[in-house]
Amino acid sequence: MFKKVCVSCLLTDDVEGVALDSDGTCNLCRISQAGGRLRQDAQRMRFQQDLEATLRAAKGSGRKYDCIVSFSGGKDSCYLLHRLVVDYGLKVLAYTSDFDIPARTWDNIRRTVKALGVDHHVHRPVQSVYRRFIRHLLMNQGPKGAVHTVCYFWLDIREGDLLRFAVEKDIPLIFTGYSPGQPEPERMLYEMPAERIAQDWTPHELFANGVFKEHERALFWNPQRHGEGIKLPRILAPFHAWDYDQARVTNTVIELGLVQNKVHANPVLSNFTLNWLLMYSDLKLLGYNPYKPEFAKLVREGKAGRRKWLLIFALMDFMVRRRIFMGRHIDRSLRELDLRLEDLKMAPLEAPPPSRAVRRVADQARDCA
Known about the structure:
Elements: H1 27-58, E1 67-70, H2 75-87, E2 92-97, H3 103-116, E3 119-123, H4 127-139, H5 146-169, E4 173-175, H6 194-197, H7 204-208, E5 234-236, H8 246-255, H9 262-265, H10 267-270, H11 275-285, H12 292-300, H13 306-322, H14 329-337, H15 356-368
């Protein structure tokens, strides 16, 4: 079926919740044009005021490190590390979780750490444990598909590792390189809610069904393990406060020598390789590339170029559907996870509880029996 593409952003009419009018403009662009952009700008200014005050207060704290940066090696986290070290003069610890990182991304990591002279902690999780839960999640995906199901679970583990490390090292601030299109607003915008950080993130249902073993509870963030009265770190996303421009970030990290070239700066090519299998699953089960809403938001807000990303998504979908070029990682990931294409499934939806009328009829039938 022919897909209609919004004339303003990247979204197509097969994306859930998207509708195009007769002029070819999607409902999200219409909301933005009707004043949504002004409200977002006002919100960003409030975030910026808090961020600037936080950064000023952090400098000269007397601690060994003023903050931790979740350092994936993508262009955004390289740029973020540079700004915090050079522009704000903070003592920064870069923190990398080493799972499925491509060679070109490791090149970005090494270049940036060397150029900025920062300390770098590499956490190496047990690969078999990661493969175990990823395999289970891909065979039991939520209604939003593979990228959402796997990546958000993965984030809970990675950010839990960061929180644990920050508490142990007495570091009060954690900075992430989320762009304005990441993550879902329900998770966090500029700052992760303190109420969420104060919760136990253990997926108890996955222990109950055997995906995780009892001794693996330590993988998950639970502030209760650190005793009462601990001061929990803040998790902030500076790109939600700063005036973000994707092209400027890309050009800056290349000019500074933090990233070798535009190929190494491309978020599609610097992301973890398992991502190609996740995209394949979502194209198959959802019918569209799951990253479109994220990049469409950047395009809608003037932070990324529409034509460039329209072409990139066409190429991505072509490689994924045919499992060629970068799409060859699909078959490699399937082998590593011991999966077949037909194993990529969504979990069956739970039946809603019966209505009062249905329960009443059932009760009457039982009484008659």
